[in-house]
Each structure stands twice: as structure tokens, then as C-alpha cells.
Amino acid sequence: MNTIGSHSEFGKLREVVVGSAHDLHLPPFAKDLSHYNDELRAALSENGNKPLNIEEFFPERHANTAEQMEGVVKTFENFGIKVHRPRPYTKEEKDHLGNLQPGWSQLYPADPVFVIGKHYLEISIRRAYRRKEVFPLRDIILPMIEDDPEAHYVAMPQSTPWVPSGEGPGPFLEGGDILIHKQDIFVGCGELCSNEAGVYWLKRYIERYGYKVHPMPIRGPILHALGIMCLLREGLLMAHLPALKDGLPEPLRNWDLIEITEQEMNAHATVGVSLDNHHYMLDPQFNRIMDELVTRGVEPVPTRCDAIGYWGGAIRCITLPLVRDPA
Predict the structure, then answer these.
(1) Residue 184's domain is classified under what CATH number?
(2) Which strands form 299-302's sheet, in the order they lie side by side?
(3) Fewest Cβ atoms closer than 10 Å to its Cβ: which of 39, 242, 264, 318?
(4) What is the DSSP letter of 84?
(5) How would you classify the pairing of strands 236-239 and 229-233?
(6) Other residues' Cβ atoms within 10 Å of the Cβ of residue 50
(7) pTM of the model
(8) How many domains does the chain have?
(9) Which strands sit side by side in the sheet containing 52-53, from one edge to the other?
């Protein structure tokens, strides 16, 4: 029987969805894309009011991205983790919400949906062009939900449209902002990602099931709490504390902390994936951090993702955990 359930950030990982670089078209530049690097911003701005075909405009970068994504898949499979891949979009899905923000992507499936315990959530992402990502994912995940009598399936309210930006007032809740530890859920909120309305919706929905939601206000134009912090094993985390307005949430304040620099944060040091509580996947550029992990009993699993990171994410962003054991 297929089951679904992700109960932690570092319990044994058993089943995932990994995104795809196929047919990537990014939208014209707007405020909600301000986390992109200068070169990519310029290319999107100069392309007029239409999506940019990334494979045509950045052929080498696109090829390297696709290659590295396959490397992530291979690493998962070497650790016995089952990997699903999303099907391509239909034409109708590509065109969906194009009046708000044209473009389409399947790079980062961990943002528009999320799994908390036995709860599969279709959530409300700020960038309108990415809201269509839920459709191909349903083909993978709904059969698992139908086979699992304990599974919950819920879709949160979508943001009211606000042309021309397509953002709307929210509620916004994005998977890249959510971290799970036992019954505690830590949720980042800021100017580029989830907002207070999205955190409030999650609190109202999930706390009836015994969870406790802890908001984490983010300082400045940083995309997602996972870009600032990750939980590596019981009692050990990695974070760039200046990016958290209120510091660490109370349940995490006594944990051993590997402090990272702003440069390491911007290079996505915290956006790796724990395969279990003794193995952490990250890009091999982070020599200092890998040494810190080894001294604390966590084995680094070097997996290149610098090309993936060019588009604003890393290994965790392209990975949606579907089945992960409790910590």
C-alpha cells in the first residue's frame, strides 16, 4: 500500500519528488523575483513582457542545471530513496494565470505544496506563475492519499489577484519556509515569501491536530526560512542568525548552533537535504561547514548544486519529501 507522511527534517528519508528543468520559462522581472542575481534579473527585464526560454537563452547553464538535478536523483537512489519526477505541463497548464504572471517552472516542487505528518497541503505561493505546479504533482501524490486512510488533503485559500504584479494580498504560505521538529512547526515570514496571513491559516488548520506553529519573522529580502536555517539532527542546527528578526524560536534556543556567514547563506549552505540524522547533502564548495559537520557526528554527502542555485534555490528546493520517518 502507498502511504504518505513526512514527520521531521532529519528522520530517515524514504520517498521524494525531485523537480525538472524541462521547458523552463521564467517570467518578466518583477518585485517578487528580486532574490535573483543581477545577470538573471537583467535578462528577464530585457525580454519584454513575455517569459524567457531558459534553455535557449542560457543553454550551458540550463544543461548544467539538468545534469546536477540528475546527480541529486542518483544520490537519493544510492541511499535507497524512492524518487518521483513530475510529468510535463499541458499547454492549458502553461497558460494558467498567464494574465497575472506569464511563465512556468517545475524546478522547485517543495514550495507550492508541503507534507506535514499525514497532511498534504496545497499552499499559496506568492509568485503567480508557480501556482500551477500543483497540477502535475497531483498525479503523483493523490494515488498515495487515496491508498492511505490516515492521510489528509487540504488546499488553502489562494491570494486575490492584484494586477499588474500578480502578487495579491495573500494569504501566502510557501514550503521553503516550513521546518518540522516533532510537534513544533517553524514558519518563516517576510517580504518575499510567506506572510502573517499564511502563517495564521496554517496555525488555524494544523494546531487542532496537536502541532504548535512558531512564526519566524525574516529580516530583509531573503527568500525562505530554509535559506537561513536547517535542522541537522536532534539538538543540532545551522543558521545565519542576523537574518532572523527575533532570533531562534524558543524550542530551538538551547540547540548546538553552527553559525554560517552571510556569504555561505547566500550560496545556499542551509538548503541541503538530510538523508537521515547522520548524513547531510550539500554542495562540495562548503569545506568549512563540512568540517563542522564531521566534528558533530554528521557525515557530509557532497552533491554539486551550484548550477541549480543560479536560479535561486538548491537541493532542498528541488526536493519534496513525501515519506520521512520521525526524528
Answers:
(1) 3.75.10.10
(2) 273-276, 279-282, 299-302
(3) 39
(4) E
(5) antiparallel
(6) 12
(7) 0.95
(8) 1
(9) 52-53, 20-26, 104-106
